[in-house]
Amino acid sequence: MPNLLERSILLTIGAASLSRDFAEALTADFMGRGQKTSEQGREAAGELLERARDETRAARSRIDASLQRTFRDMGLATAEQMEEMELKLAQLEHRLSLLEQAQATEEQKKEDE
To answer: CA-CA distance, 12 to 63, in Å (whole number)?
Structure first.
């Protein structure tokens, strides 16, 4: 588990680094071209934000997949599997109570005879 946490942190740092690298490259490109208008600045900022969002989504997706694999390898149940088990347990408890009631009724009949 510590290895997974370390990998997740490194992945997050990598995504942040990519965003910073992209911002620096974009700034250098505009500075090199001498294009500094406010409209171009807004466009650049929009591109940067969209790229950062995409990288964040991709990083989250990779982290989620990695965590799910790790949890599965550890034998941990998912929330959905736990809900299914709880439902099955409730059904079994209900059936058991019905059987106990039926047995008690039979015993009562035998005593009455």
So the answer is: 9
Residue keyed to tokens 């929330």:
79
Which sequence spans correspond to the domains of the chain?
A: 1-76, 77-113
pLDDT in tens, 73-86: 888 888 899 999 99
Give the amino acid at 104.
Answer: A
Q: Which two tokens stand for residue 100?
A: 């106990």
Each residue of 45-70: pLDDT tens digit? Answer: 677 777 777 877 888 888 888 888 88
Which helix (H) or strand (E) segment is 35 a member of?
A: none
Among the ranges given (35-39, 65-69, 87-91, 107-111), the one the predictor scored with the smallest mean pLDDT: 35-39
Selection from 92, 17, 101 nearest residue 59 by Cα: 17
- Of the candidates 54, 19, 74, 15, which has an alpha carbon nearest to the alpha carbon of residue 7? 15
Give just the sign of the alpha carbon dihedral 12, 17, 20, 25: negative
pLDDT surpasses 90 at 12: no
Within 10 A of 105 (CB to CB), how many other CB atoms are there?
10
